[in-house]
Amino acid sequence: MRDVLARRTLEDAVAAALHPARASSYNWVLADRARALNVEGSATTAVTTAPGPDGLLVHANHYEAPAMLVYEADPAYAEGSARRHRRAAELLEEAASRGPLTARALRNLLADHDGVPDALCRHAVTPTETGTVFWCAANVTTGTIEFGRGTPCAAGPAQRHRFAEGSAA
Asked: In this structure, which of 9, 154, 158, 161 has its CB flanked by the most CB atoms within 10 Å?
């Protein structure tokens, strides 16, 4: 992970994420000031997708690319994740139609509770449930990120970080 974050270009970050000697992989949503990519990976293969024609990119916690579906270990979890994905896409499209997307608008989107227990903002009620533990919204154009610990609906004021000029964002 640290290697990917240290890269200066989008191409180099993708190459680091997909290093041939990796033992496993994450899903990566990577961006620079001009482009964004979603990288769905496993230990042996990967599929990279770009934003749709509307310029929007949404990812939840399941494989979407047909070539990657064989790696989906929990179909029931994937079903709930797909519902979150659809809800996020719907909310993102609505927010984008109102004007430029702001960190505040993205935090509000992440704080959505529609569709419990598969809401975007997930509150773990028991120790075995999965809940939201942090949120973040990055502006790769300005090189800033807003983030917070806990659920986006309940977390206190956002923490902010500005990347140094010329660094990867």
From this structure: 158
Listed by start position, the domains of the chain span 2-162
> pLDDT tens string for the chain (169 positions)?
889 989 989 999 999 999 999 999 989 999 998 999 999 999 999 999 999 999 999 999 999 999 999 999 999 989 999 999 999 999 999 999 999 999 999 999 999 999 888 899 999 888 888 889 999 999 888 889 999 999 999 978 999 999 887 655 4
Query: Cα(127)–Cα(40) distance, rounded to whole angstroms?
Result: 29
pTM across the whole model = 0.88
